[in-house]
Amino acid sequence: MLAHLPQSFDNLNLPLRLRLWDGKQYDLGPSPRVTLVVKDPTLIAQLSHPGLDTLGGAYVEGRIDLEGSMRDVIEVGDALSQAVLGDDVSAEPEHQAHDKEVDAAAISYHYDLSNDFYALWLDPDMVYSCAYFPQGDETLAQAQQAKLRHICRKLRLQPGDKLLDVGCGWGGLSRFAAREFGAQVLGITLSKEQLQLARQRVKDDGLEGQVNLEFMDYRDLPQQGQFDKIVSVGMFEHVGLANLPLYCSCLYGALKPGGLILNHGITSKFTDGRPVGRGAGDFIGQYVFPHGELPHVATMTSLLSETGLEVVDIESLRLHYARTLAMWSERLERQLDRASKLVPDQALRIWRLYLAGCSYGFAHNWVNIHQILATRPYPDGGHDLPWSRVDIYR
């Protein structure tokens, strides 16, 4: 057995070097691409069970440092965890209680970090959701514009349509829908930092007569069916599994008969919604998205249908999100000096792991992301959708 190290590390063949607090180094395989620097001797006992939450938490808390590209760090960390733990399966999740205060605090924790920090690695419109690469060679900015257009075309937006943008972020989609498609938009968010910048961008674009952005919880939406179209991008992951029926009901009540809803969000690999194994989901829940829960796409389509909506189209963008996250991660890695001046060290460590790790997770089918298009049929069962999708891609 290697001195100081758990017996489970014997005979591992990984491109990983361990450097201990006393300067001793151990290579666990030839040509190490990653060096794990153990700064806290008490961590050695925990390395006998190297879950991704254990490794990630130790890095965030400064108990270890990591040397090497973040892409290699994630790949080698997963290989280490799998070699020792095998394909660990997470327990069935316990649904968490969500109320307005809990959700507002969780949103503020993640999104109110620093507008300038997000601007370092997002596209110019600061679209913080999966981009769309119709050809595969688009830049990040091109792919985000393509995503916004893809959404608006799926919604068959027309000039004068009243569009509700649930979780409007920095307002990129709201402004795009108004500017490019002539929609009248109400965007809602629970992030005060996002709202302030989004309103300024609406003003700068001269869209104040078309775009109204408000600090509002989805549970407070008017239920008089006043919107022609509704879009929700990257928001329902924060709702909580127990509250998804209420979420769907609130969207249904806000939509006119004949109207369309597009729900774009991350979905679980497992039908019961449990997080991915070996602690990756637990790390995200603790450090990145408090109280976030992912439903399976079958759960979401079932709940939309139970509400009275008709699901008419589903598209997976899993590999698109793997590429988006990889681009975000690469852009952040190039700006670490500037980023370190905008957010605390612990936050920067979280985001470095999160972006690179999520790209890896989407690429390896740990999670998925789906755009679900649904309509509220007229009382006679009819709707206004065309007979094919050709208009979306024309």
TrEMBL record:
Residues annotated as domain DUF7884: 12-76
Broad class of enzyme this protein falls into: transferase
Nucleus recorded as keyword: no
GO molecular function terms listed in the Swiss-Prot or TrEMBL record: methyltransferase activity
One Pfam family of this chain: CMAS
Keywords, sorted A to Z: Lipid metabolism, Methyltransferase, S-adenosyl-L-methionine, Transferase
Similarity-based family: Belongs to the CFA/CMAS family.
Protein name: Putative fatty acid methyltransferase
